[in-house]
Specification:
Elements (H helix, E strand, L loop, with lengths): L4 E7 L7 E7 L1 H50 L9 H31 L7 E5 H17 L4 E6 L5 E5 H17 L6 E9 L2 E8 L32 H12 L3 E6 L5 E8 L34 E3 L1
Parallel strand pairs: 4-6
Antiparallel strand pairs: 1-2, 3-5, 4-10, 6-7, 7-9, 8-9
Length: about 300
């Protein structure tokens, strides 16, 4: 065992260069270090316990929620007879919608807890990014059309394939587009863009929404944190969407940047290695908002008009 000591060097008050070395036993520092180590262990144990608790609760909630959604679907399709009152169908539809919303929240909690625990398994495979973008647009189109929002794509021909977890990339796109549509006023526009930059794929979601103030940037991506202003208060939210995006990006050793200003819309840019991450397991590092330079051109980085545009 080692005992901590503190070495002090003192210079004499006289003119001669006389120095005194004092060796002191430092039990106080040792005690503080021991307390710090104990606190770290307790924090780590609490984090593991939290992750297990969320995973168990989320799993137990999904089974009854799936039953609620399934039986609601059966009732809406009038498999057991027609509704006698239009309000009955309306109420069943509300039950189904609420169940789907809660299931989405539970799934996000489960995914975030798995990522934090380093237990989120990724399955890398090559696929065309344009296919993932098209699937996202198909899923999000009804949500956009309900607000008369134009949902477009600007995918450069060189975007090509990426070796990544297809489900994770699609989840990133769905979460970003869902947020963009939610916080874009009626009649606005949302665009998915992508291009190849060296050995990385840069893709982004731009909107003409309300934008984000500088003071709110620090809270972006924190679980259960949502920006509060007169517009966002009209919408329900848990803040899990962007938190999940950050975690999935970290699993792929990617970066994320956000460009926004109040009233000027928002652009969230993701950069992933085309050939996939080098690290395949373990808890991911945090993803910092590292700015990604774009060539001069329009807001989506199209400097030569070569992007594939679809309405």
């Amino acid at each position: 065992n080692f005992r901590p000591f503190r070495l002090e060097l003192l210079r004499g008050a006289r003119e001669q260069d006389i120095f005194t070395f004092v060796l002191r036993e430092n039990d106080e520092i040792a005690a503080l270090r021991e307390e710090l180590a104990t606190a770290r262990e307790a924090a780590a144990a609490a984090e593991v316990a939290k992750g297990r608790f969320l995973a168990v609760v989320s799993h137990e909630l999904r089974t009854p929620l799936n039953a609620i959604i399934g039986f609601s679907d059966m009732l809406l399709h009038e498999m057991f007879g027609a509704f006698r009152d239009p309000r009955q169908k309306e109420y069943v539809a509300l039950v189904r919608e609420s169940g789907q919303h809660l299931l989405s929240v539970v799934t996000s909690i489960l995914d975030v807890s798995r990522i934090e625990a380093g237990a989120y398994a990724t399955e890398l495979e090559p696929f065309r990014f344009a296919d993932a973008a098209d699937m996202c647009r198909s899923m999000m189109r009804p949500l956009a059309e309900a607000k008369s929002i134009a949902l477009g794509a600007q995918i450069a021909p060189d975007a090509g394939e990426i070796n990544a977890d297809r489900r994770a990339v699609q989840q990133i796109l769905i979460n970003l587009v869902s947020n963009a549509v939610k916080f874009t006023p009626d009649g606005g526009s949302v665009v998915i863009g992508a291009k190849r930059v060296g050995s990385r794929l840069h893709f982004w979601v731009s909107d003409t929404g309300i934008g984000i103030a500088d003071e709110d940037m620090a809270n972006l991506g924190k679980p259960f944190m949502q920006i509060q202003n007169d517009y966002t208060r009209r919408f329900e939210g848990t803040g899990l969407g962007l938190s999940l995006v950050k975690g999935l990006v970290a699993l792929h050793e990617g970066t994320m940047s956000i460009e926004s200003a109040p009233g000027e819309g928002t652009t969230v840019t993701i950069s992933l290695p085309v050939n996939g991450p080098k690290r395949r397991s373990g808890a991911p590092a945090d993803v910092l908002p590292v700015p990604i330079a774009k060539p001069k051109g329009d807001a989506n980085g199209d400097s030569n008009g070569s992007l594939r545009k679809t309405a």
